## 1
Amino acid sequence: MKAASMNAHPSLVIGQPVEIPDAAAEPEAMVRFESISKTYPAYRGKPGVDALQGIDFAIARGSITGVIGRSGAGKSSLVRLINGLEKPTTGRVVVDNKDISALTGRELRLAQRSIGMIFQHFNLLSSRTAADNIALPLEIAGWSKADIKARVAELLDLVGIADKHDRYPSELSGGQKQRVGIARALATRPSVLLSDEATSALDPQTTRAILDLLANINRELGVTIVLITHEMSVVRQLAKEVFVLDAGHVVESGHVADIFTHPKHPITQSFLAEVTGDSLPVSLASRIVQEPGSHAVIRVQVRGAGAGDTLIARLARELGLDVSLLSARIDEIGGQHVGSLVLGIPLGISGGEGATTRTLAWLSQYQFPAERLGYVA
Amino acid sequence: MSPELINLIVQATFESLYMVGIAALLGTAFGLPLGVFLATSRKGELFAAPTVNRVLGIVVNATRSTPFIILVVAIIPFTRLIAGTSIGSTAAIVPLVIASTPFIARLVEAAIREVDGGLIETASSFGASPIQIVLKVLIPEALPGLLLALTLAVVSLLGYSAMVGAVGGGGLGDLGIRYGYQRFMPEMMLAVVVVLIALVQLVQSAGDYLARRVNRRLRHR
């Protein structure tokens, strides 16, 4: 964004839906943050908070994009900026070529109908049935009764709970409630679906089913999905691209596979550790000592497609060692293998370290990051 | 008890029901919007107007802390202005409405504040206007609480209505004082008390029943 075009920008005329002239330059962006900062002023003795700073990125049209961060990283502020519930302190948020941060009142409410949102705690009205909950945004948008009825039936079908039409939320399971939430969010045919920790209150199996449903919706309806989460597994299963948020800054971004196979920022590495399990099994950890025993314990990081497939076999063959596998955890992220192997390397009869040294040298030659954890008796 | 006396009781019961019924209707008509506003007008809320909120809060508290019998006497000129007279059941409705409106407003405020704030955010996120949020989210979600609040208001009004006898308002309280106390007819006093107890029971049961019926939150748990 050039400073010159910024000055004369029509978005400064509040209340007008603004077509962004340079949208053609980036036609693929559905959500664009332009030099966003968000500061909450000091209030009643609480100090002010800089929730977001220097946020500048775009979310591609039709994509499933993850925004991952710990609590307090600024995720909630980010979502609330996208759907216009909050205004940025500086910069602007462009959603579907409309400067949502410049809209107010009726114009804003109209724009919000093209942004659906699902919530961690579902936020269904307890006084309405599943069907009537889904109907709510349509009633608000002023649809006719007949149109609402047809659309609701369609949506219940889409999310696979047509039989729950007349059930109240208190009669539904968590997964069913979230399906109602998804149907409600899609009711007005939005172009963006914001998912704010939508699976955090669900068990792993239900989480998978809901994520599958979201993937289908993305594929069939072409809805851009923004996944806000603190769970690595959610991003890994669904997103192609990810933005890592920490203390109000985007610290890392890119393709999920790249980011998580070669994490640079400590926060990203800590998210990855949740999946790859850098922590050792308790039974093994308790056996590791620092005085030489029968085997040295080496942990090898495995990253990349097919990486590590033949690692043990080659190591054993090329170095002529009886390598033992003490623990292993390998996962797949975007087609890439990510994980760690914990190997036992036999020490010489007199306790010689030769085999260990050769192993570490061999591993570094093939660019497997490795470290010695200690010894086992 | 003679048929004349029974007739008196029946007549007084209808007077009481008339006063309480109209006062409850008008009290709700004024108290419900006032209560919704009180619940949604603090800083950062739906109809944020912190100063107006504070001023209304003070007025409501002042009205509520004035003893009812003093309120009745103090506003006699106002009552005359509205009702054309300061005597009789119709005139008595004026102070009853003035006393019940702030009471209902506070109960409504409490019931509305019980609604999960996440629902307001949800409705806003799909473009609901503040009025739509009140009508489609806050009031329906608070309905069980609102019905219980209204029940409590009617029961209190029955108590208040017994006091307006002091200014010629008629009704059961008036009957109890004039016949039971001033004419030494303990059976009349007893009859009045029994009818009042029966009315309160009836109102409370009906209110509880309705509140339970509309409450979908706790079903099937």
## 2
Amino acid sequence: MTVRSTTLGGHTYEFASLADLLAKATPARSGDVLAGCAAGSAAQRVAAQVVLADLPLATFLEEQVVGYDEDDVTRLILDTHDPVAFAPVAGLTVGEFRDELLTWAAEGDETAISSLARGLTPEMVAATSKLMRNADLVAVGRRARVVTGLRSTLGLPGRLASRLQPNHPTDDPLGVTASIVDGLLQGSGDAVIGINPATDSPARTVALLELVDAVIRRYEIPTQSCVLAHVTTTLRALEQRAPVDLVFQSVAGTQAANRGFGVTLDLLAEARAGALELGRGTVGRNVTYFETGQGSALSADAHRGIDGVPVDQQTLECRAYAVARHFEPLLVNTVVGFIGPEYLYDGKQVVRAGLEDHFCGKLLGLPMGVDVCYTNHAEVDADDTDTLTLLLGAAGCSFVIAVPGSDDVMLHYQSLSFSDVLTTRRVLGLRPAPEFEAWLTRMDLLDADGRVRTLAADAPAARALLAAARP
Amino acid sequence: MTVTGSDPWAVLRAATRARVALGRAGDGLPTARELEFRLAHAVARDAVHTPLDPAVVRAGLDGVPVLEVRSAAADRAEYLQRPDLGRRLAPGCTLPRDGADVAVVLADGLSPRAVHEHGAALARALLERLDGWSVGPVVIATQARVALGDEIGAQLGARVVLVLIGERPGLSSADSLGVYLTWDPRPGRADSERNCVSNVRPPHGLGYAEAADVVVRLLASARELGASGVALKDEGPALPPA
């Protein structure tokens, strides 16, 4: 292992390995303290950033944080690396790469930034993000263009889509439908109507798939559905020819963590092939959806790399993106405040992590969204989620997640509300996905300025949609 | 917005407990709805952060012998960020080995409020039902995670530990108590080796007698099997993360 060091202010700082260097360079967060890999002082953190800035990007192709032989995520990353896409930045250090990205962003050169994706590894992108401030993450993130589609087109400039999340504690069909109607009436659902089922039963999953499919067909809504069951459950639904638009799976950045999720790369490939075969897309063929989140590997005790050295949670998060991008997803989102204060303690850490995840995902070529959320035992409140959401809107985030009144009554956490999505679109001049926007117009849900109306219950659109929620 | 029989929005409200049909003020929430949400969050936050007062629990236990311990987490902020410390006793904190069958632990967990409101009553309901078991003093544990019961049970020499612990508050339930049963407690037990009875919070959730009956049945099965956890799967609900 290569020991790297620097002397600053008469003090010499040494970093025993690449994983150690990356961890010490990471902006402060509770999960790295819990893992025992965080910087021990503010000066040590900056010293690590100084060393990291001078590291050639190409180092990450030769030296690993998680071993090639023992981890299939590492093998996927290196075996699919595209040297042609990497060529424009192959001679740069991490610090020079940051400068180049900021220059391209300022020039509005989306092509220069976006065409790098397949040439970048998660570790390169994670390293670069550690040298960036929040505004850097926003400025570059908004110029990394990733457009995907199935029945709506996501990621276009000037658009912010939303996942409508109509969860219900018992998956009651009327209860789920009521939340869907509430969201549609407020202009949400263009990314997906996506339900976390209360149980992972195949029969329940099929019933929910059929329920959402019926709503989508009845009102001819240009969007897609998803029931966020385990991939093996979705495979069962596919065997039964259920209306599966999207294959969902939570993924993480190490093979061991993915094993903890009960998932392998082969399983994901098989499910994707099954969904593609159904041919349910109209504007695109992206049929997978992944969720990730900093801390998921640590919570599965699967966060160690070469020689058992802990890898910081943000680098591991980026490695999860390598798994996701291999399956050409329609949607990927980090669930940024869900996992708890032992990984991201307060609003500052959650805001930072949300911007990092969006930036890193986009740079790696993912249609990146964020579940801006928190639990009641974290030092986070709605002011913090407002801040992050507006910053993500400015950063060109593909989509956010919204639930009725911010209160997910099944998963017991707070995400955004439908009105938060409207506020963000209004403040930043963002619009829904184009196909969905046209549908909102057809339903007479938009006013002359393209804004979602506040409807009276006897308005035709309200009457039409409320009919779906009648017993 | 008033809810009447003829209010079409009532269709949505009747169908789910989710916060549907809130109305809007511009793009935001109307003031009344905003304040309702804020209050629910504030109540949940207070449930997490109001410290456990052992005197409240002692008073409710009507003279049952009590011991007090704390975990290695120095304060609430450290407790929330370092779950590993909440699973270990504070340095120098020891308990006398009494060799009773059952150790009962009242732990603050993520909702000390749940212990204030339901802890003593549930403990009494349990103690009344433990015929055929010897029971040591009730242990009140602060800044405690479920697994702290493993070390407590091991020091007391108990065959089984029952940890009554405040569950993570939701927006609609800030006072929910859970009971975790671990056979042959010792440090290093996995969560899969426990059984859980969750959501004890009368009148909205499980009642004390109802919960205690379930726990006593689990105890009998665990004694027969000489183990707890997934082997007792059919007897109890799925185990939420500790």
